[in-house]
Amino acid sequence: MLAAPAILLMLVVHPLANASGDGGPECQPGPKVAQELSRLERDARSIYKQFRDGRVSQLTLIREMARLKTTIEVLKDWACRNNSDQIPELVVIVDSDDLVQVFPRGMRHISGRLVPGDTYPATALGSRQWQYLGERKVSGMRVNIFRYVTADSASAGDKAN
């Protein structure tokens, strides 16, 4: 029961760091990114309140906090690395059942392992593309991060990691 408050504090208290992580000046997000970060932090407080009120299980709390923490970190990193105030469409996969958000018909059309930075079609013949940003370990769970790739961002050749 004590682990949940620590997760919440870790999620909300982290200052914005610069993308290079060299201890230089902090990266200040633009207004759109700052607003999205605030929304994500409100979501974290809300899920914790639901747990405290007995409406969600501890496992659900841990999964959702891992998802939110990862989304916040990736969004901050994205905004700093790309000097952008645009919000990328991110999907953080905590459970393999969540993969249907990215690959609605499964992953049979993808050969081999996912490679960070590479782009994959959502379906075998579909036009929707997802960039695999990589895997992180959060709260003992492996989470996978994907970013929806638009035609503009694919032609620009930007990479998030």
Q: In words, what does this structure look like?
A:
- Helix 1 runs antiparallel to helix 2 (31-52), helix 1 packs parallel to helix 3 (58-82) and helix 2 (31-52) packs antiparallel against helix 3 (58-82).
- The protein is built from 4 helices and 4 strands.
- The model is unreliable at 1-24 and 154-161 (pLDDT under 50).
- The chain has helices spanning 3-13, 31-52, 58-82, 151-156, and strands spanning 90-93, 119-121, 129-138, 141-149.
- It has one domain.
- Strands 1-4-3-2 form a 4-stranded antiparallel β-sheet.
- It has 161 residues and is α+β, with helices and mostly antiparallel strands.
Describe the structure in brief.
With 161 residues, this protein is of the alpha+beta class. 40% of the residues lie in helices and 16% in strands.
Number of strands: 4
Unreliable stretches covering 5 or more consecutive residues: 1-24, 154-161
Count of distinct structural domains: 1
What topology, given as strand order, has the largest sheet? 1-4-3-2
Query: Radius of gyration, rounded?
Result: 17 Å
Please outline the major beta sheet. 4 strands, antiparallel
Q: What series of H and E elements makes up the topology?
A: HHHEEEEH
Helix content: 25-40%
Count of DSSP-assigned helices: 4
Average of the residue pLDDT scores: 82
Strand content: 15-25%
Distance between the termini: 34 Å
Structural class: alpha+beta
Q: Name the overall outline.
A: globular
